[in-house]
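Quick one: structure tokens for this chain, please?
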Amino acid sequence: MLLWPLLRRSMTKFPEVDAQEAVRLINQQDAVVLDVREHHEYASGHLLHAKHIPSGKVNARIGEIEAWKGKTLLVYCRSGARSFSVCMLLSKQGFSQVYNLKGGIMAWESAKLPVEK
């Protein structure tokens, strides 16, 4: 179990960023923010201007996501696990500027950063 975080990091082709680094990506690189939580989770609060595509529908809506391929893409969920899987998928699809919000919206809210409803 202790090796999983190390193995997970070595298998990824994308960085995981903390909330402060995510703010920098949004403000300085005009990152597209993608929320991959379920609808009820998104409705309870999300990052400002976040696009919403539940993780289970990413494959079906990949054409929509392709429009953001040349942009910085910040992906998040509740804790970072679902967004990690989506980042893996997007990385395999050729997205080169994909970032996973480590700790998800829970980390974002813990850092006292704003959400909208």
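Residues 67 and 95 are 11 Å apart (CA to CA).
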